[in-house]
């Protein structure tokens, strides 16, 4: 997120799904702040709209740089806006971990641009990586080479989605001891209702 003198706050990011265009009212997750997009730029040129894969800067009104952080997700307020989550269920494959992983393990997850510690709250089932069949219910622990369904809780507000709904927001890497110890795919998300505030420009644009 950059602050550009004379223009205002310009968050920068990559469009993952859908489009972003001027005049749209967007919501930032996980805080729920909504505002109007004033302009969209790529390589210093104004765009009528940006599509997936575009790295864009977009100008938002009445939003301070302090309101936004890396890892926040911006989405269309009118069409299934992204929200924070209280927990999520994921299929995790342990690639490289020297010991045993038990419930309570809290490594850092890298998901889209978010970098947040998440706790393995429950190990639900251990599954066969090839067939996807359940091998063991509520396993005591998992280790390198295992795949499991895990219930996870983020330590800070975090915005993720199920892989089937929004693939780029539904994949993650598990980092610990300076390496990737596991990878995961999110199956379902327990959404959190956040009453976010709408800026004046969002309220005006909504009336149009």
Summarize this structure as a short list of keywords or feature phrases.
208 residues, mainly beta, Elongation Factor Tu (Ef-tu), domain 3, 2 domains, 6-stranded antiparallel β-sheet, 6-stranded antiparallel barrel, 1 helix, 15 strands, disordered N terminus, translation elongation factor activity, protein biosynthesis, elongation factor, cytoplasm, Transl_elong_EF1A/Init_IF2_C
The total number of structural domains is 2
The residue ranges in which pLDDT falls below 50 over 5 or more consecutive positions are: 1-5
Given the structure, what is the number of helices?
1
Q: Which structural category do the helix and sheet elements fall into? A: mainly beta
Mean pLDDT figure:
89
Task: Report the CATH architecture of the largest domain.
Answer: Beta Barrel
CATH H-level superfamily of the largest domain: Translation factors
Shape: elongated
Helix content: under 10%
Order of helices and strands: EEEEEEEEEEEEEEEH
Percent range for β-strand residues: over 45%
Strand segment count? 15
State the major sheet.
6 strands, antiparallel
Kindly provide the radius of gyration, computed on alpha-carbon positions and rounded to a whole number of angstroms.
19 Å
CATH class of the largest domain: Mainly Beta
According to CATH, the fold-level topology of the largest domain is Elongation Factor Tu (Ef-tu), domain 3
End-to-end Cα distance: 28 Å
Family: Belongs to the TRAFAC class translation factor GTPase superfamily. Classic translation factor GTPase family. EF-Tu/EF-1A subfamily.
GO molecular function: GTP binding; translation elongation factor activity
Organism: Rhodosorus marinus
Keywords: Cytoplasm, Elongation factor, GTP-binding, Nucleotide-binding, Protein biosynthesis
């Amino acid at each position: 997120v950059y602050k550009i003198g004379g223009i205002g706050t310009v968050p920068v990011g990559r469009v993952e799904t859908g489009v972003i265009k001027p005049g749209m009212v967007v919501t930032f997750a996980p805080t729920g702040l909504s505002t109007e997009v004033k302009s969209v730029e790529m390589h210093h040129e104004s765009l009528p709209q940006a599509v997936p894969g575009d790295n864009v800067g977009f100008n938002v009104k009445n939003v301070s740089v302090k309101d936004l952080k890396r890892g926040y997700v911006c989405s269309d307020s009118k069409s299934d806006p992204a929200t924070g989550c209280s927990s999520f269920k994921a299929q995790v494959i342990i690639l490289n971990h020297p010991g045993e992983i038990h419930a309570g393990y809290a490594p850092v997850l890298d998901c889209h641009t978010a970098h947040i510690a998440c706790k393995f709250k429950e190990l639900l089932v251990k599954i066969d990586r090839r067939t996807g069949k359940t091998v063991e219910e509520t396993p005591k622990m998992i280790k390198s080479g295992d795949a499991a369904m895990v219930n996870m809780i983020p330590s800070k507000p975090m915005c993720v989605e199920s892989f089937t709904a929004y693939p780029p927001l539904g994949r993650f890497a598990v980092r610990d001891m300076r390496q990737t110890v596991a990878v995961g795919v999110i199956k379902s998300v327990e959404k959190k209702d956040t009453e976010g505030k709408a800026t004046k420009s969002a309220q005006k644009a909504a009336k149009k």
